Amino acid sequence: MSNASDAISRQNAQERAVGISVFVKPEVPGFQCVVKQRYTDFLVNEVLPNGEVLHLTEVSHDQNRKRKREPEDELQKKKQKENGHSDGNPEANGEQKQPNANGADADALTKGSEAQSEPKTEASAEDVKAAKAQAIASISDADKAILKDVFGDDTTFAILGLYANVIAYPERKARSFQAVNSAPITEKSKRTEAHLCIRRIFSSRLETLTVQDQDHKSGPGTVIEIKAAPPKAPSNPNTEGRKNDQQRGKQNWSDLGGEYLHFTLYKENKDTMEVLYFLASQLKMHIKHFGFAGTKDRRGVTVQRVSIHRVRRERLEQLNKNARGFRIGGPWEYRTEGLDLGMAKGNEFLITLRDARFESIAEAADMEQKLQHAKGVAKAAASNLATSGFLNYYGLQRFGTHSNGTHAIGMKMLKGDLKGAIDSILSYDPSLLEEDESAQSNGDNTCRRMVPQDDVYRAKAIHAFRKTGTSGEALSHLPGNRFSAEKGLITHLGKRDRKTGRLPNENDYQGALMMIQRNLRLMYVHAYQSFVWNTVAGKRWELFGDKVVEGDLVVVGEKDIGADPGSNTKASAQEVDEHGEPVIHPSASDDKGNDGGEAEDPFVRARPLTKDEAESGRFDIFDLVLPLPGFDVVYPKNKIGKFYEDFMASEEGGKLDPHNMRRSWKDISLSGGYRKMFARPLDEVEVDVKAYSGPEDQMVETDLERLSKDSEAEPSVEKASSGEKDNLAILLKLKLGSSQYATMALRELTKGGAIAFTPSYSITNR
């Protein structure tokens, strides 16, 4: 397993680079294994506030969706055969995209969609062509000129084609028409004009939507989506809807239990936000109407609670008909409040660790001996994890996937080196271009098989921008739904003035960074704070171990005599991000006129322990917190407080001052926060060891498989490979709090031997 050993060495080096350095119990043996070789190797079920583990209990409208996993192309073919056409990508059905060429004559526009498969009930081809021509003719030359001025020739041509289709096919639903995306529009006045002119010129038959800025903080460079408008709702949908419901005998929201429908989302190998955006598009609602306690891993099978505002169960259940990679199900419940970030106790993980290897067992041992030895080592490691816990490190996923870690970018931002931060974001591996060029010249794609194709496109885009300084060619390489940070930077810095030919923004580095969505922009400085926290946590353990010493920090109120145990609960619930992590954000009090240094935001407070308190035995290592650097935190009153100063002042720490974290740019002026130094599973850790034949063997049952099996007349039989069972897998079940990384628990359990699956050393990937 030399390749695996190399992978472990690389992973350990990556961990050390972000401050992950020590083990709590290095003397307890670990083992080597592979994590997430199949996405069914990683099952995550949310733990509700009452401690109950959430499971999918029922799925309606699922009779045609058996558990058997079919290839994506087979599912697409089946769907096309059943429906006659696809609701998604028109090219999948031989449909043509909206025309994209200079000019806007009626003949060219009317030909653009005639290749689409049209229901027999629609008008004849001649009638359709006439309707399209009439629609184009109804737009005055003056209005066409306005559209070209706002959107440019190509986008205007596509918009007119969309309008022609809408008029020609009035019986079609709005979602069946392909939307048009504008080029990024940098001026706010231009974006306002874009929204208004579409509404006016097309008499509200088309509508616009901001699609690049999900937080409704439209900054420069926002993309406008133009799409067919659905039929108008009643003038007062709330009162009209209640009135109509009563007339039809429906219960109103209060009778049901509240305006928020809580349901269970089951997903396989998909991001939480990817599924919710799809649901929002199908329901024609904004994503803000959904609530959830936290996002879940993509590569895995996850179950979580979601809430939606003013949508009935019957309507939501219908979406299972077109569900791919997810299901919506029960328990169903109407409530008066929706879900919010942090409203879960944690997650239960059922993890299959494949290809388990143990140093102290001879290769010549038979399988029964190996099984018994593996069980002994795994159970001892699990018992130690449950009792002693693990350092509550921020995992590698906190620091990005590209060569320059997000913490290094955040460090440059905090130092005021905005150009350096941008250069780090827009860095790439030149070898990607060399391999891609070699593959294309040889007609061979094998040299690119280890790198996602999107990363090659990203490298091409950045290379083009570095070469030309302009955005045109570079943006053409970037995938439409990825790399929003790179896209924002290139769009702003590479904008050319049409009149002068100059690049007015080429040195506007702060303006370029402002083009990045705020949550993503803040991720960089948050990552720097996480890097400092990791480094300090390791140092604290090296100096004092699990001993509580004078000057250590604890949360105010948690164990104070006479204090309300729940005094910090509300603040804590408000201070987590979509991953359940503590939020470190600019304080509401962070302005130049406030010298008090006290944050007005709800905030968990900490205090140092006195010598008597530290020696009293009332506090243990699991009570201690360490601060994330900021202007509104206290630092430990012992050697660790001094270490913050020394480390952050060093070259590695960025030559920064933990006591001077205010910045003139408020987005990177951080108040700080606190994080528990130690963590341990919420309950006992369960382990089992199984022998298996190959990577296609599945050793656990998902919630959906259980439901499908229960609904079938005969129990389903899990397929497994027919080869000899000469491999070992560890089945691990544990519950962790919402702000704890499963990867860090696995690190302590295996002593760094858990390798994230990559095709570079494994045979099969699912």
Report on this structure:
By secondary structure, the chain is an alpha+beta fold. It has 5 domains: 2-51 and 346-389 and 682-756, no CATH class; 72-228, no CATH class; 237-335, Alpha-Beta Plaits, CATH 3.30.70; 426-516, no CATH class; 519-679, no CATH class. The protein contains 25 helices and 19 strands. Strands 1, 2, 6, 7, 8, 9, 10, 17, 18 and 19 form a 10-stranded mixed beta sheet that branches. Helix 5 (141-151) packs antiparallel against helix 7 (188-201). It starts with a helix and ends in a 10-residue tail after the last strand.
Give the SSE map:
Layout: H1 2-17, E1 32-35, E2 42-47, H2 72-83, H3 106-111, H4 125-137, H5 141-151, H6 153-168, E3 180-181, H7 188-201, E4 206-210, E5 224-228, H8 237-247, H9 253-256, E6 260-268, H10 272-283, E7 290-292, E8 301-309, H11 313-317, E9 326-335, E10 346-357, H12 367-388, E11 390-391, H13 406-415, H14 418-425, H15 430-442, H16 453-468, H17 472-477, H18 484-493, H19 509-514, H20 518-544, E12 553-555, H21 569-574, E13 606-608, H22 611-615, E14 624-628, H23 639-649, E15 673-676, E16 678-679, E17 686-692, H24 703-711, E18 727-737, H25 742-750, E19 754-756
Parallel strand pairs: 1-19, 2-8
Antiparallel strand pairs: 1-10, 2-10, 3-5, 4-5, 6-8, 6-9, 7-8, 10-18, 11-16, 12-13, 12-14, 14-15, 17-18
